[in-house]
Amino acid sequence: MSYLSLSTWSLHRNLGPLHWTVWDEGEKKHRVQIEPQPETVKLVDLPVVLASKGFKAFEICHFHFPNTESDYLQALQSACKEANIKLHTLLIDYGDLTTDDEIRRDADMQFIKEWIDIASTVGAERVRVIAGDADPGDEKALARSTHYLNELVDYGKTKGVGIITENFRSLTSTADNCLKIVRSSNEQIGLTTDFGNFGGPTKYEEIAKILPYSESVHAKANFDSEGLPDEEEFRKCLDLLAPANYDGSLTLIYDGPGDMWEGIDRVRKIVETYL
């Protein structure tokens, strides 16, 4: 049976500064750019807050970690255990496995492996890795991505961490590419389906293709200028869950204006009718 989860992106104006990873082409190394945001709740306190609201799991974006020292990670893991809430996925929101810049690709692979180590320490079940920024028609880039994703699967096994990717960014902007990646690993690479990341006239067909292979769903609606979801469109996406026999986490995504908890509640009221 499906259950409620939440992405920390849905609280990105509440959890303090965002630590964005960027590639410095001149210096050929990673840098962190800090984007100030209010902190109305600390990440380490979030598990008990979410559990009190009835969430069974959550996902953390890597840029929300205020630090990655061992003591902090263990404290966060303990907070999850005490709240009886599952850290379903650590979302690694940086990395391009399709780049033909070998220096950057090696650096990005090392970066991702370090976050797999962090996921293992903090108790995350899996990490979401971006498949790549290359054009979806670039077969060489697709092969490069699948090669490195499978390498990460092997590395993740040594740490007890699963590897999933998502219909996110250019390479996986088609269902066919998502499925090619999954099948390249005998389905050891999992998928997250994000309702908001496919578009155009084939959107629902594309979602339907990848849902049966998905370990999580990002339940993201389209929002108007007041933060109100397009309920009719959103339900068209949610109606695809049952035919796919999907019974995993439904991770609420709110990225509209205004109070983020109120926005989350508006999404939740719709999604709960599908639990």
From TrEMBL:
Q: Which InterPro entries match?
A: IolE/XylAMocC-like, Xyl_isomerase-like_sf, Xyl_isomerase-like_TIM-brl
Keywords attached to this Swiss-Prot or TrEMBL record, sorted alphabetically, are: Isomerase
Q: Which domain of life is it from?
A: Bacteria
Q: Does the keyword ATP-binding apply?
A: no
Read off the SUPFAM superfamilies from this record: Xylose isomerase-like (SSF51658)
GO molecular function terms noted in the UniProt entry: isomerase activity
Q: Residue ranges of the Xylose isomerase-like TIM barrel domain?
A: 50-263
Any Pfam family hit: AP_endonuc_2
Q: What is this protein called?
A: Sugar phosphate isomerase/epimerase
